[in-house]
Amino acid sequence: MKDIIVAPSVLAADFGNLQRDIEMINESEADWFHVDIMDGMFVPNISFGMPVLEAIQKHAKKRLDVHLMIENPDRYIKAFVDLGAEIITVHYEACTHLHRTIQLIHSYGVKAGVALNPHTNVELLKNIISDIDLVCIMSVNPGFGGQSFIENTYQKIKSLKELSKEVNSNLYIEIDGGVTTDNAKKLTEAGANVLVAGSFVFGARDPKQAIIGLKEAVV
Ligand code: DX5
Ligand code: ZN
Q1: Biggest alpha carbon distance in the chain?
Q2: What's the domain range around 49?
């Protein structure tokens, strides 16, 4: 099997049975938990905040990949580190001083990622690519689960792969939004190595099998 990371997005879990769903992911072939934090300002939706993340952390046995869809994220980096985030991703569009934000995240010894909205050109990362651990290419407009995949994503992955190959060959290239077994192979062939999947996993009759399906699809 190809070495790809599958990160189920907790946003699509059943919050009435959160512990059950977290434990189900613990037992699955998934690699990370993808945790979407939305502030109702940067994106037109509010997901959940610290108390829910604390509950997730209490049960999760895999890496917490925290995706901050919030304005001025510097205010909360430490709080997310204290709650067990091992990767913190901020949005390019939400950070005036992106380099400073990345330095702040790294100062706590956690990995730093940058997410790009569908309209944001990957070339804009040229001067920061060697300083970051992950790029999250949004393949839907951030804010909601269950949206359809934007086809232009493949082209962006290829450009990012090209941009990173000389300077940061260990970069995680994460795709977030509308990921299914229908596009997983094409995404990894283009250069993606982390697949986030919310509704495809939690909406499946057998979520563990859906995770295996994603891993097998890319072989
Ligand atoms: C969207 C979030 C995604 C979302 C993915 O703003 O960042 O992580 O949960 O959900 P699906 O896989 O259902 O598109
Ligand atoms: Zn996300």
Answers
A1: 46
A2: 5-217
Of the candidates 39, 65, 133, 176, the residue annotated as catalytic is: 176
The pTM of the full predicted model, rounded to 2 decimals, is 0.98
What are the respective helix, strand and coil percentages of the chain, to the nearest 5? 40, 20, 35
Q: How many domains does the chain have?
A: 1
- CATH number of the domain encompassing residue 67: 3.20.20.70
Verify whether residue 176 is a known catalytic residue. Answer: yes
pLDDT tens readout for residues 80-95: 999 999 999 999 999 9
Q: Say if residue 207 is exposed, middle or buried (CB neighbours under 10 Å; 0-12, 13-18, 19+).
A: buried
Write out the two tokens for 145: 């689960």
- Chain segment 145-195, per-residue pLDDT in tens: 999 999 999 999 999 999 999 899 999 999 999 999 999 999 999 999 999
Q: Which of 138, 196, 200 to mutate to test the pocket of ligand 1 (most atoms within 8 A of CB)?
A: 196
* Catalytic residue flag (residue 21): no
The catalytically annotated residue of 36, 39, 65, 133 is 36
12 lines ligand 1 (CB under 6 A): yes
